[in-house]
Every structure is written in C-alpha cells, then in structure tokens.
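During the reporting period the student researcher (J.K.) took over the structure-prediction task from the postdoctoral fellow and processed the backlog of single-chain submissions. One of the processed entries is reproduced below for the supervisory committee.
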Amino acid sequence: MPSHPRAFPSWLVACGLLCLTPPMLCARPAMQAAQTPAQAPRDGQHDFDFEIGTWKTRLKRLVHPLSGSDEWVEYEGVTTVRKVWNGRANLVELTADGPAGHFEGLNLRLYNPQSGQWSLNFANSRTGTLGQPTIGRFVNGRGEFYDQEDFDGRAVFVRFVIIPVDANTIRFEQAFSADGGKTWELNWVATDTRLK
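J.K. obtained the following structure tokens:
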C-alpha cells in the first residue's frame, strides 16, 4: 500500500498544544465522539452494474514483470459480465487471442455487505484454480483493489484499478510493487468497449 510521509514537526507541535489545553476542553470532544454512532459502510452492492453485458476487449500484458523488461504482448477478445445474486456478485468471462496464444480467464466478484468491499477472485483455464483475491471498493467512480501475493518467489503488492471512461468504455490496470508500495510497475492494461 502507498506509504505516508512522516510529519514529526507537526506531531511535536500538536503534543505541545495538547499539554497546554485545559482538561475540560479535551474531555468534551471525546464525550461527543463517544455519543456519535459509527458510520455504516457505504452500500456498494451495485457498483458493477454498469459493466453487465458483453464487451470487446483489447489487452496488453508485460511478459516479464519486475525484471526490467519492456516486452509487451497484445490480445483481442470478448468479455462477458453476468449478474449473480441480484448484483451482489458477478461473473466475468474473458476469452482472448494474441501472438502468445489463446487465453481464457474467469473472475468471480463478491460483495461483502459488512465491510462494504468487493473481493475479485481470478482464475485462468491453464491452472483451473482461484488465485489470491484482491480486495477493495469504488470511490468516486474508480475501483481500487489490493492484495499481497507470491511472484517468482518473492512477496509483492498487487493493485488492480477499474476506471469507467464513459458508458461504453472501461479501462483496467494491474500493477506490482516489490518495495512495499513505494513504486508500482504496470503489467496489465485492458480496454473494454461495449458491444451493441
């Protein structure tokens, strides 16, 4: 995950001001906070409704991620997205072909109403098993999902982003980070265009 810069001088100033604050002024906000109910997670169970349907997919993937290589392969295919559980889940099927061969992928997306988050569970026909799920949500129309996986014997962070460009175009990006989220290398880019 992205790291946050340290703010030591601000912290030091805040501690100094806190020590000078009368105890009754400190207690009042704490009491008010205790009386405020916890905010329920945003209901995102229909976040993927915009994607239901059939799409022409153009994708490219980096052949050797995190190796310094800039060799990409391109594929073209079709993606079909179906609602499951009245939108609280959906199933994505991708079939594509390119110079590197034929590719079939499946993504089962599940909504967790308690956390307000989605898990994206991917499998390809070559292995036939579900991989580590990426977890996240949509904020301001953009979906961001993260996980940590083993890649070539080392732990890496994975970030998967879904960007609806307009009603008929969606962009997907996957990136890896081998340094704890300080830097990211893009390794999968797909653009889906809705088929009429």
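The committee noted the following: The longest strand covers residues 72-84.
J.K. will present the remaining backlog at the next meeting.
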